[in-house]
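Reviewer 2 asked us to include a model.

Predict the structure of this chain.
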Amino acid sequence: MDVILKEDVTNLGHKDDIVAVKPGYGRNYLIPRGIGILATESARKVHAENQKQRAHKESKLREEATVLAGKLDGKKLTIGAKTSSTGKIFGSVNNIQIAEALEKDGFTIERKNITIKDQVKEVGTYSATVKLYRDVKATVEFEVVSE
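Predicted model (structure tokens):
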């Protein structure tokens, strides 16, 4: 069963992609929730026309994301956290704190687009991946220090 996605779905595809899914997943999850529509012949024609009109906007968004990725790559952030005397953090540092630190530096990034490779439970230097556009990503270094 082919489905045209109306929004990004993790591990499946991006908005406006035509993806092949199992019939039960399409009928019972994607279509009822409005995440996708059945890719009939008429829907494919409408989709193709919309893609032609959107091509210019997409290139502009990709350029802006590439410029932002150039600014973010190699960016060093400092995040303060309450720690014990041995350097263990009470709780952990997550993508919310990274998004707030980027906001202070003037970059508006949604927290769902920030991925930390491993759990941050101790003071030290770590890295996070920021997804700016479909295939445009930047790596941000951050250091966790004791407050």
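The CA atoms of residues 117 and 128 lie 6 Å apart. The longest helix spans residues 41-72. We have added this to the supplementary material.
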